[in-house]
Specification:
The structure is a single chain. This protein is α/β, with parallel strands linked by helices. The chain has one domain: Spore Coat Polysaccharide Biosynthesis Protein SpsA, Chain A. It is 27% helix and 22% strand. It has six helices and eleven strands. The strands form three sheets. A seven-stranded mixed β-sheet has the order 7-6-3-8-10-9-11, sandwiched between helices. The chain has a two-stranded antiparallel sheet with strand order 1-2. The chain has a two-stranded antiparallel sheet with strand order 4-5. Strand 1 and strand 2 form a beta hairpin. Helix 2 packs across helix 4. It is globular and about 40 Å long.
């Protein structure tokens, strides 16, 4: 059932970062096959009913033209997720944006709602895994951080972690971390396929 998530009474935009060719996976992770289509389709199936503005950050549009969403091609290819945000954020319709990487196959929606509810008074809300790792590729951003992103890129910084220190950032711990995973290797992907079949 469609239920738009709201922050300060307004819907949010959704940006899915597809990245480029994965060094470890040696192919586009977003296009990995699953029993229900590609990996990015598997992810979007969980999220599409909660956002009325969906943008896909891509390095090459041709690879993703099968998706019925707005495709935004990186201004400078191969420069990482911060460049993806710099290029895609200006196209978002709403002041708050949920950003996720395409290789996070499962979303605990109750946790996502908690992040969105917390985001009202913060520039960025980012989760922290049980091991203490910040996850800026699964976070709520205010569109207002775009000038900071531009300044960092102009300074030669490509990692999103310094952005967190330049903005009003709230960290939320993932207390039950078993649901949160990235598919970084072929082994991760094979394990994910096994989970789906079980």
């Amino acid at each position: 059932m469609k239920k738009l998530y709201l922050c300060q009474g307004q819907p949010l935009s959704l940006i899915v970062l597809t990245g480029g060719l994965s060094r470890r996976m040696k192919r586009y992770k977003a296009l990995l096959p699953t029993p229900e289509g590609t990996l990015i389709e598997h992810l979007l199936r969980q999220l599409k009913d909660h956002f009325d503005d969906i943008l896909i950050s891509v390095s090459q549009k041709e690879q993703f033209e099968f998706l019925p969403y707005t495709l935004v091609e990186d201004e400078v290819p191969g420069e990482g997720p911060m460049m993806g945000l710099k290029t895609t954020m200006p196209f978002s319709k709403h002041p708050k944006i949920f950003v996720t990487a395409c290789d996070i196959p499962y979303v605990r929606l109750s946790f996502l709602e908690k992040m969105i509810q917390t985001a009202e008074n913060w520039d960025i809300v980012v989760p922290c895994s049980p091991g203490g790792r910040l996850e800026p590729l699964f976070a709520v951003y205010s569109k207002s951080v775009l000038p900071v992103i531009q300044n960092l890129l102009e300074s030669g910084i490509r990692s999103l972690l310094p952005l967190l220190h330049h903005c009003r950032t709230r960290v939320i711990p993932i207390k039950e971390g078993s649901w949160f995973q990235n598919l970084n290797t072929k082994e991760d992907y094979e394990q994910f396929l096994k989970q789906i079949k079980e």
